[in-house]
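Input.
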Amino acid sequence: MTLGRQTAVLLGLLLLILTALCAWFFRVLFHPLFMELEQGETVNDGTVVSSLLLEQADGLSGAVEDWATWDETWAFMDTRDSGFLDRNLDSEAFRILDIHAVALVDTAGSLVAGLEGPGEDGYPVPLGRDVIDLLSSGVAEVAGSGGVSTGFALAGGRPCVLAIRPILHTAGTGPHNGGLVFVRDLTPVLRRLRQQSAGLVVTIRQSSLPAPGAAPRVSSDADSIRVDIELPVLFGPGLELSMSRSRDTYAAYTKIIRYSTIYLVASGLLFSLVTLALLHKLVVSRLAQLMRRLQGTAGGPEAPDGGAGLDEVGQLEKALGPLLGRLEAATADLRESERRNAALIEAIPDFMVTIDREGIILSVHPGYGNDQVIPPEKTRGMTLEQFDLADITPGEVRRRIARALDTGSVEKFEFGLNIPGSRKIYEVSMVAFGQDVVLAVIRDETQRKHMEDEASRVQRLESLGMLAGGMAHDLNNSLAAILGNIEVAEIEEPGTRRDEAFHRAHEACEAARCTALRLLTFSSGGDPVRRPVELGPLVGDVLMGLLPGSAIVCDSIFEQGLPPIEGDPDMLSQLVGIIVTNSLEAMGSTGVLCIRASACRGTGDSMPAGGNGVLLSISDTGGGIPASCMHRIFEPYFTTKPDSAGLGLSVAYSIVKRHGGSIEVAPSGQGTEMRIWLAACDARPAGGRRTSEGVGLLKGSRVLVMDDDPLVVETVIAMLGSLGLGTGSARSGSEAVQKFAEAARAGRPYDVVFLDLVVPGGMGGLETLSRIRRLDPSVKAVVSSGYSADAALADHKGHGFDSALRKPFSIEELREALSALREDPPASP
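Output.
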């Protein structure tokens, strides 16, 4: 049989099999699949509609909750003043609340008052028989008993949703004063659903599901498909959402599949005829010509039968026999050579990549063990932009490729590559490898870099240990001084020695507070609590604590009329102290410390935002900073001193940046000069320390203190008592709101609330203030926190507070915070 006849028979069989498979796919696979898709879409549509109805229930619950905890609703249940209904339940209120009826029930379950939506005249009307019957079915009894419930029901055959809440005070506490019922008619909702989706029929009716909590039930006939979903009810028989639509989509699917089968069979028949014609013209005739040429090339005699009984392929195979023998021998030699070369290349651990001048990857050999990192089959043909490069740009790589091609030099560089789950570091050697092609040998240096980074991390941990040890040493010294002096004061009789012991304990507390502030400043927190600060007195106070007993000569010049700085006094004192201490250590026992301060205006990289600032220059006559270390002095843990943690200047840098300023170091004639630019402000600092008269207008006032730490609460109450203020305490935000409301009802309201910003596991100061402002918008509020990173502490007025205190604070700082309450208008809630 010839090759053409064999092909015709094979194509005929394939066409018959294709027809049978199409019919089988339609009956066995596609028909159940379309049925399942249709049911899934129907259930999904029903779930969406039921979710919409449940959202209606949730919205109604929120509305009835607001009205049930409204003081006017409570007052109405006491007075039965019909003016409450006239003022609040007009036609506009029904429209806004989207309710059909509202009912108020006393604690005995009796209907007190009720209205339905606007009638024909546009005004609310008394409750109709449908709603009254619904209330008498058990709704009124649950509402009167203080129950909380939401569910669906049928009122006179109309589907509706009900929400029941007990009537309480605004604070949401105390015994209930009856119940409030909202009824929303769902008929308009179902009507809109029918209008928005043609052919959709949505109804709510008594449930026909086999049992409560049953899954959605889908049923269908020749024309339509329906899903029934159970809805939550309050009383009586269950309700279900029934949604049906026509089966036009399934009919269309069926028609499309049938037509597709016919078209596929017809296309297969046409393809078979065209294939036979092309096969004869392009293959069979050419095979015959090729066979005759091969027989002449082989030079051997033809078979005795001339190849009779063989088809065209058999005859060609017979002619190719002598040539294939010689070709197989040459191929075996070539494969052996390739095997040796491949083994040699596979043993090399480096990538070998060829790249053209445009940055397109032409070939990749991943090297030993690298094929999992960058699969070669996915890399060929990619451009440099398709790799997630690090430490180098695609443009820079192209420039190096061009340099290697144009100059013939070897280009070496490193780059990083981000791959899913990790980052690799590679070293590249690139040489010209043909016309506009380079060969890049890429070595994985990730392990070596990781080892270097690990060594650096260990060094940083050692520095961190030095920092922790130093801070612990400072804190332990302060605590030892505090504890020892307090015990001495307890033993001593009242007098000078006892007063001196308390004074030393107070100084130790200030030292401990400075140590904690240093830790906060170096951490990710530490936002400045800003206020106008005079730079001259601040620098003078720092020098008074560092220079006494030293032979260092201090030369200070401050410009006349120097504007104040907008900043945190504690942080700025720490900044000046760090730099002055470094200068003193650099000079040793003798030297000259020069401090200059002047106003500066203009723009530039060093100037603070706004252009108006103060330049503070601190220079010394010490040994100076080596030029090789100049660019690293502000790095954490970098130090040239063997006994230092290397954190001083990094803390100073952090303080300046958090104040929006800049700092730089410049070599001076015989030492080092630090230049600091800080923003100036127009406001002047408050006068000297306030006396006890500073809170005169608040004497006799009552202050509510909220803090989760009982020791802090007791201490603050004692400090307030010493200022002549009445106090109350709370351990949480919810307790503070409750006590504030109870004091207001008792006629002894609190004038000031003292709130801790952060209460672990409870309501913090921000939310507590918001709730208290609802009860009394004019109340004064003071925020306190030990976390200086809190934005509410740095910008207390922007968060609704009238004053702020950072823990720990002194009684003088407390007096100043309270004095600010009488000077400023109350913050907005």
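The CA atoms of residues 703 and 752 lie 5 Å apart.
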